[in-house]
Amino acid sequence: MVKMDILKYLKREASQDRAALKALFDANWYRLRYADIGKAGVDPFTHYMETGWKEGREPFPLFDPAWYGRQFPELASQAIPPLHHYLSIGAQEGASPSPLFDAKAYIRRHPEACEPGTNALLHFLAAPVDPDFNPCPLFNTSWYLGANPAIAAGPENYLLHFARAGAFEGLNPSPDFDCDWYLEQNPDVADSGANPLAHYITAGADEGRRPCPPSPLDWLNLHAAELPDDPDEPENWIGAYERYGEYSAAHTGRP
Fold first, then answer.
1. In the chain, what are the domain boundaries?
2. What's residue 184's pLDDT?
């Protein structure tokens, strides 16, 4: 595609997507996510359209351009913002805008979200809560809403709240993922400002990072050969308990 001023391109080619474009750009979140934008005092939307998308910045808590780009490698050589590509092409093909939202899984459960002109993410954000739909691995919707009744009763979509703020407030998406612990154990992730669950899905799991503190069962699986031969004698467990305490402290930072 011939390179051109992106604002003119959007004006000419994407007028039909203006409402969706506005819905999937969060100016306040963008300003908070990128401190340099707030300090510079520039308009967040203008910055994103002129510069931010080229720098790989995220326009919305549930749109990750790097994740989206994996599904469309050709985007790397095209002078078009990933968000506009998603609205014009990707959404119609069932592409996922974020590691936190599996669009194809949502469409399988809600076929109406795949009708022409319908965007699965926008449909999900506007639809009543489906407690049996888990939007991504390690996110248990019914568990999350049960653990956070204020969010369940609030006006904001639960996944959007988690992506925007909940993950950084210690709200865990399931019993199998501990947001605070993951950030404590991975200061590079904390320093980057990335959502801990999104990071784990996109990179952390492949890198061997743990999603939550190790349990006694983890230790037992690793040290089965060291367990006492006679488990009925309590004193035979003293050494095992001591070793588990050392293991737990080393892997969790907590005794």
1. 1-127, 129-212, 216-252
2. 96
